[in-house]
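Late entry, evening session. Most of the bench is empty. Finally got around to the prediction I had been postponing all week. Sequence below, unchanged from the version circulated by S.P.
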Amino acid sequence: MRVTLQKNKLTFILLFLLSILIALMGEKVLPQKFFIDANTIVFDYYNEAGFKGSYPLTMSFYKYTQLGKLPFNVVGVFQLFFYYFILFKIGVPKDFHILTIKNIIVYLAFLMIGIFISMPSKEFITFLFISQIVFLFQSKKIGFDLSLLYSFLVLIIFGIFFRSYFALIPLISILLYFISKIKYTNRTFGIIIISVLVIILFSALHYLVKGDFFSDLARNSVNEVRQGSEDANSMIIPPLEPTGLLAELVNTFYSFLSVNFPIVEYKHLLSPRIFLFIIWQILFTIIFIVRFSWAIKDPVKNNRILWIFYFLFSYLAIQSVFEPDLGSAVRHKIGILPLFYYVFYYDSFSEKV
């Protein structure tokens, strides 16, 4: 009996094998700074393991599953098997083997999985939680309202116990949904602007109640400690001192561009590695926005997929106040890559919705 492997699935398998190769060779070829988080998670220097907070919960996961006792490359291979299995279950687009710009950008994202999931990682925990949202919206057996409600619950619980900003995603998404119902010339551009304005509003409310902006809690506090170090060469440094709401407004829009359209980060043009990241990120964002602009044209037919877009627009806006550098912004996207993968090819997966 002859078995024929379709070209699209063969491409998927080759990317998986390349990722496995990266994982196996990771400790020998990747800079040591890539393993700082992994070492902190596994060795738990200050006995922080617990069940609330991104580091404590991740430490507990690797401690109680015993994965933390295995060599990093073994952990990486195990995690990559699981990660790629989930992506495979989401689906493999029929044209995945064709060299289009979109496919090449996704190929590169898949290889980044091999880098960032090749060791104990907080992004693997994010992936475990967030990937289930895709299956909820794909399922024909689960009603739309229940899928949406459960997704909200997953994001809020994940926000409470892991990364607090995930709890903001349902709130921002609901606002974006209602904004999208208003008919005006360019709803895509409107969604982008509104998502950033909403996160600025939440940041301002936090300032009024707690006395500091969101950016003070994350990006600014992290970058102050790392200022001048070799490991912080892709830091996002907004143009204004965080002295008030106007500065927060300007800095957040600047950071949104830095994270998603890093053309403003021209200072990195002489660094080949960072420059390649910048090109990848710009194309990644453009494809994402174009896909949304197509989906929003038929909001009734694409109702389910649009909600995943709203989740992702919310996440991108949140990144504009929390991400300290370009590397972290890319790494954190790996944790929610199944959502991006789904919206990039939603028309190919439409028969499952």
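Two things to note before I forget:
The mean pLDDT is 90.
The first helix runs from residue 7 to 29.
Will write this up properly tomorrow.
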